[in-house]
Amino acid sequence: MAGDKLIIFDTTLRDGEQSPGIALNVVEKIEIADQLARLGVDVIEAGFPISSQGDFEAVEAIAKAVEGPTICGLARTNFADIDRAWEAVRHNDRSRIHVFLATSAIHMERKLRMTPDQVKAEAGAAVARAVGYTPDVEFSPEDATRSDVDFMCEVLQIAVDAGARTLNIPDTVGYTQPDEFGRLIAHIAETVRGPDDLVISVHCHNDLGLAVANSLSGLTNGARQVECTINGIGERAGNAAMEEIVMAVRTRDDVYGIKTDVDTSQLARTSRMVARMTGYPVQYNKAVVGRNAFAHEAGIHQHGVLTDKRTYEIMDAEAVGQSSEIVLGKHSGRHAFSDALEKMGLKVQGDTLNQAFIRFKELADRKVQITEADLEAIVSEELGSGDDAWQLVDLVVAGGTGKTPTAQVEVRRNGDRRIAVEEGDGMIDAACRALSAAVGIEARLVDFKVSSVTGETDALGDVTVQIDADGRRVSGRGVSTDVVEASARAYLSGLNKAVRISGILEDSPTAGETGP
Q1: Residue 360 pLDDT
Q2: What is the pTM of this model?
Q3: Distance CA 39, CA 57 (A)
Q4: HEC string of 22-74?
Q5: How far apart are CA 24 and CA 22, in angstroms?
Q6: pLDDT category of residue 509 using cuts at 50, 70 and 90
Q7: What is the DSSP letter of 145?
Q8: Mean of the per-residue pLDDT values for the chain?
Q9: Which domains, from first to last, does the chain contain?
Q10: What is the DSSP letter of 284?
């Protein structure tokens, strides 16, 4: 029964659409089905035609419009269901009817209210009815993993004898465990007799988070069809995620030794389409198709990936339609920071690079994501500071209604550290006065402009100033998520230019109190 070809049976449009809150119209279903065909799935379970007129019309439209995959309609063992499924799928040259009937004691007693003998008789009659329409008939014993194994195998044998060519074993409620499910599939493969082309399929739900693991265990024990959905959507906790199944088989060919016809470069695109149309977002850390699936922020990981992607990526991002991304954040290291600057065309080295990296780390503690505009602003500020510039070490401001604004600053140049405290008309004015006192240069603010680097609420404030120092007019620029700090940095940048221009490098007697 087993071969080296894995049949991908996509049930996004049937089981996936049964997710609460999803209601796709005919146009949306056709668009998804077209994309599934481009993706290269083998079977599309387009819907449950008897369930509603809308579902019938959607399955019928897909059967007429979509070429390539087999188009499948779901049916209970009622003859009316089977007839309706055939009416919907008959327009396609490759059509399948999928018949299901529960075999677990709780389902037979509580839901079906049928005896085991009645279940066996109905299963055989239903499959025979479906085979009268098409030779491609699939049978599923619903709630298989909670069924009596011997009884279920009897029902499966009856289905095969009636003409079923695919036996799907559903873990309907996500109850089984990987080893247990693997043993069940192996037992069925050994017990049920059928033609050489008989296919054992698995359909696993994710109630315990094991849908993919159980499906893969089924494959290692003889299953050659997997029923799955894009992004793992479906009833309750969902189904096995197709993208994870496909990439597991592809990545670990040494384990599974089977192939699919899926064009993996279409996986991310298909994922995005389904997420958009269903309104079910993909979690950022979702395997294979999640936004962060190939993103690296930790410095150690970034260094490795920049050296050789294989150090931390077991799949090629481009192979699934994604891109490998170095995300600059508080965990990033100097290597990734320098690499990002080089890709932006910014050649920064030595002390300037060191200081820019310090500024970057300070900013990353405040801002979740650092953009290229942020990096450019930081580097631009540092390139204008020079090696002998005063650096802002600390800034503390205070003020409020009825209170005089005050600012305390600490600056450092080489081994010289200075602290100054001043009052002002506002916090920015107080900060500028304190900086003048600390550096030892009397200066006057002539022009002040503030803008944002990006548009988010945590955007960098970009401040440009002009100051008059001893009759010399110089400009300065500073950036920070805090406008007062950005203003202080801009003012200090201007003071540093004034120092360089005037050649004043000695301590000033007007400087404020010094720190240790």
Answers
A1: 75
A2: 0.71
A3: 23
A4: CCCCHHHHHHHHHHHHHHCCCEEEEECHHHCHHHHHHHHHHHHHCCCCEEEEE
A5: 6
A6: very low
A7: G
A8: 87
A9: 7-278 (3.20.20.70), 295-366 (no CATH), 391-502 (3.30.160.270)
A10: T
